[in-house]
Specification:
This protein has 7 helices and 9 strands. The chain is an alpha/beta fold. It has a single domain, classed as Rossmann fold, CATH 3.40.50.300. Strand 5 and strand 6 form a beta hairpin. Helix 1 packs across helix 7 and helix 5 packs antiparallel against helix 6.
């Protein structure tokens, strides 16, 4: 954990949401729009979907490889989600921060709480749907899971939503364009504030 350095002009963002809330689309659009922020690619034991690319969406590895990395203390956080393991690599996250870029972690609420305990200065954003039924409609319409998996995800989502109160910021994704604009403005505002704060502290240091 000591290898992750937050004492630079870089922010660590956490974005969480239940399945179907649209966090992945929002993160992708955010990172495509702002050059100063980069996603940290997670490791997973989940099978790769046809639309996904290894090293772009996730690093797809076996459970044996994943457990080996756990033993090596390779992960900043890791979770079992719907029977598959997901983990955030320390080295990948550190490389982004050490390059003075902001990093955004797309992880579940358990990972969010775990990282907030380690790094209270990390900023967490929770994406909410306008209503519960919207989650089911989105999960069904994307056609990636059968009814059994959708029902399992819905049950989990109802539990996850209770943890949204622990996030620093909440965005309701009703209309994507509106949620996107709100997220872009929030990230930019925090970025500008952190730059001015660092400049102000540097001036104070030089003055003294």
């Amino acid at each position: 954990m000591d290898n992750v350095n937050l004492n630079k002009n870089a922010n660590l963002f956490i974005i969480s949401a239940p399945s179907g809330a649209g966090k992945t689309s929002l993160v992708q659009s955010l990172c495509n729009f702002y050059s100063f922020i980069t996603p940290s690619i997670s490791y997973t034991t989940r099978k790769k979907r046809e639309s996904e690319a290894d090293g772009v969406d996730y690093f797809f590895i076996s459970e044996k490889e994943f457990f080996s990395k756990i033993e090596q203390n390779y992960f900043l956080e890791y979770q079992n989600v719907y029977g598959n393991y997901y983990g955030t690599g320390i080295s990948e996250t550190s490389a982004i921060l050490n390059n003075n870029k902001d990093v955004i972690l797309e992880i579940d609420y358990k990972g969010m709480l775990q990282i907030k305990r380690i790094f209270p200065e990390a900023l967490s954003i929770y994406i909410l749907p306008p209503k519960i039924q919207t989650l089911r409609e989105r999960l069904t319409s994307r056609g990636q899971d059968d009814d059994l998996v959708v029902n399992e995800r819905m049950k989990s989502s109802l539990n996850e939503l209770r943890y949204s109160k622990f996030a620093d910021y909440i965005i309701i994704n009703d209309k994507f364009d509106d949620a996107q604009r709100e997220l872009f403005n929030l990230i930019l505002s925090i970025k500008i504030d952190s730059i001015f704060k660092d400049d102000w502290l540097m001036n104070i240091k030089n003055y003294s």
